[in-house]
Fold this sequence. Notes:
Layout: E1 3-7, H1 12-17, E2 22-26, H2 33-44, E3 48-53, H3 58-69, E4 77-80, E5 83-86, H4 88-99, H5 107-131, H6 136-145, H7 147-161, H8 178-189, H9 204-214, H10 217-223
Parallel strand pairs: 2-3
Antiparallel strand pairs: 1-3, 2-4, 4-5
Amino acid sequence: xxxxxxxxxxxxxxxxxxxxxxxxxxxxxxxxxxxxxxxxxxxxxxxxxxxxxxxxxxxxxxxxxxxxxxxxxxxxxxxxxxxxxxxxxxxxxxxxxxxxxxxxxxxxxxxxxxxxxxxxxxxxxxxxxxxxxxxxxxxxxxxxxxxxxxxxxxxxxxxxxxxxxxxxxxxxxxxxxxxxxxxxxxxxxxxxxxxxxxxxxxxxxxxxxxxxxxxxxxxxxxxxxxxxxx
Length: 230
């Protein structure tokens, strides 16, 4: 049976988004696309119900429960206020609009958050393809030496050149956006935020971003709690 737990107490942020969301996702520790939604919930003070499916039981649920909620049979899925929400990054953008934060203020800031998020999405696609390949022993090391380096360099370059990113530690300077969460999560999933972020030493601007995310009060409390699974 999937594990079901509720975290937090419903408050103003839940009112802004329309209630307490139920997240359906794999029991994949604190990794993957679904984790970014948890990260936003934690930072914003959104109470949520967390349903996790083990990798062993998920194939059966995918054919029944999941496909009934989402025709693509993909997770994460959110249930909220009688609606079913799909697509991780669309959910993040929806919550950002409803909360009135996390996506910048001007059109230029919103564009820049979207653009940087899209780069991280492209990186995640490459990472997942290599990491979950039947030939992982060959494909993942190759990914680490090629695509991963390319995306790290691209993000580092953008963060050190774009006017918005020069004003503070985040993609949009001092304003924390959903793009920072998405970038942080792929860094984490590639094991670049572990061991003192030693593998980010060549990318000081990305390290600054990751440090800033981890030191946000609610994120820090989350990472130090038993809700955070590594």
